[in-house]
Amino acid sequence: MSFTLVTTEHFERRARKFLRKHPDLRPTLRDTLGDLSRDPFQPRLKLHPLAGKLEGMQAVSLTYSYRLTLLLKVTEQEIVLLDIGTHDEVYG
Length: 92
Fold this sequence. Notes:
It comes from Thiorhodococcus drewsii AZ1. By secondary structure, the chain is of the alpha+beta class.
């Protein structure tokens, strides 16, 4: 079962800024997005639900220091990408 990745305007802006600052992570982001679309439940992605003001959203690890936040809509087989950045940037 594959999932469709949907981006928000906010995510696209943040991703452009993130990749300008971290061009070396472009292949990692590409691989992570590919893995997400194939199977978001792969253990390598460390998909986990968020709490507090981000309740209802999930996050995956891009690297040890960076995260992607998203909405996972299993019934629609859709993943809405919301944000990218450090732990403090995406959870703060």
